[in-house]
Design brief:
The chain is α+β, with helices and mostly antiparallel strands. Helices cover about 25% and strands about 15% of the residues.
Length: about 260
């Protein structure tokens, strides 16, 4: 689908997911893949095994930003961010910044079970947007995601046979981006190839919502002075509740809440 605001919003609300082509370069995707696999390896070593449900799912990619600053470069791509603003309006922040990397040889993820990413349902209201950047081509063989179109308004899980027989597969070229409602019922596939299938997985929410991981506090151990104001805002650095009366009443430039809570 070509990028058109009205068509995107209509399709997102009707179907629950939209795939767009983007301008991420092959070099950028190659560098991201290298960083992802390096961090997945480092995180599994921290856990002490590769035999755990979240293997391939980074808890918080910005945790590795000092060594892999390319994770922050995603926020410099206005074309990538624009559809999120169409749904959530201005000042949205990052809820999670993770990965969805399927290991080779019958590799599965925790997300291979039918699930939603947001347990709460607010009718006729988009509180968040999930985004999957296809760092590799997504094919049936390497485990492309299943989406049950139009199921984002269903509170109860679908019948398993119905899901597997009716869900659409996210067959998509390398560099494409899938924007989806975190309420849609979906599941990762199974990677039966001999190569990793890599992707970035990000979630964005309205600025008054709490993040899955306290990214601003994680970044305190990181040198973020070189990050743009826009990147800091997107990471939630300017949407933190005040921690003291001095912070609340202090000069605007020293406050932890610097953006309108629209």
């Amino acid at each position: 689908m070509e990028k058109n605001k009205d068509q995107f919003i209509k399709e997102f609300n009707r179907k629950g997911f939209v795939v767009l082509n983007t301008n991420f370069s092959d070099q950028f995707l190659s560098n991201i893949k290298s960083s992802l696999l390096s961090c997945v390896k480092e995180e599994s070593e921290r856990v002490g095994t590769t035999n755990y449900p979240e293997y391939g799912l980074l808890v918080c990619a910005p945790e590795y930003g000092k060594k892999h600053p390319i994770f922050f470069d995603v926020f410099n791509n206005d074309s990538f961010l624009q559809p999120i603003e169409w749904i959530l309006e201005k000042w949205f922040i990052t809820y999670l910044y993770s990965s969805a990397c399927l290991p080779p040889y019958n590799g599965k993820l925790k997300g291979s079970k039918i699930h939603v990413d947001l347990p709460r349902l607010i009718p006729n209201y988009n509180s968040g947007v999930a985004v999957m950047i296809c760092v590799d081509e997504f094919t049936e063989e390497n485990g492309c995601t299943y989406f049950l179109a139009g199921s984002q308004d269903k509170l109860n899980p679908p019948d398993e046979d119905f899901f597997w027989n009716n869900a659409e597969r996210l067959i998509a070229p390398k560099g494409s981006v899938c924007y989806f409602n975190p309420r849609i019922w979906h599941a990762a596939g199974e990677n039966i190839t001999d190569e990793w299938r890599t992707s970035l997985l990000l979630g964005f929410v309205r600025p008054w919502m709490k993040q899955r991981i306290d990214i601003p506090r994680i970044l305190q151990n990181n040198n973020i002075d070189n990050l743009s104001e826009k990147t800091k805002q997107l990471l939630g650095c300017y949407a933190q509740p005040p921690s003291s009366l001095d912070n609340y009443f202090g000069p605007k430039e020293s406050r932890s809440f610097k953006q309108p809570f629209v």
